[in-house]
Design goal:
The chain is α+β, with helices and mostly antiparallel strands. Helices cover 44% and strands 23% of the residues. The protein has a five-stranded mixed beta sheet with strand order 1-4-5-3-2, with no helix packed on it.
Length: 142
């Protein structure tokens, strides 16, 4: 069997595996394997084919990583993301603040410790949950 045929079989296998797993990075590696097949067609030695496949495949993976990172930047932390944490955006009523800058509120049937966001004065009243840090609610005054 010709060396180029082996490269094409490997490239096809990578594409098939990508269809099963759903990771786009395997397609980038398949591009590298196809480059190895083209190098075999061009008559390069096996070492040249491997180097070509490795450089093109790795370059495609790195390029796709940076394209994806630029196109889809990271969202907010899970502690302040309302899609992840159902408490973010809810309101609580703070009746009185302690001298250490915390307060205790009854929320969802339990006692929670509330902390005002830095830079805000802790005043009694309605507050919106901005973030959940451990077992504390970080709140903003409404």
């Amino acid at each position: 069997m010709a060396q180029s045929t082996m490269w094409w079989i490997l490239a096809g296998g990578a594409v098939a595996l990508e269809l099963v797993t759903g990771t786009f990075y395997l397609l980038m590696l398949a591009i590298g394997l196809a480059a190895g097949a083209l190098a075999a067609h061009a008559g390069l030695a096996p070492v040249g084919q491997i180097v070509t496949a490795a450089v093109i495949g790795a370059g495609a993976v790195v390029a796709w990583y940076y394209v994806r990172k630029a196109k889809y930047p990271l969202g907010p932390q899970a502690s302040s993301n309302p899609d992840v944490n159902m408490d973010v955006g809810e309101t609580v009523n703070v009746e009185a603040w302690n001298t250490d800058g915390t307060a205790n509120v009854k929320y969802r049937g339990a006692q929670w410790t509330v902390v005002s966001r830095p830079g805000n004065n802790p005043v009694p009243g309605q507050h919106r949950v901005a973030e959940v840090i451990g077992n504390r609610l970080l709140v903003d005054k409404l």
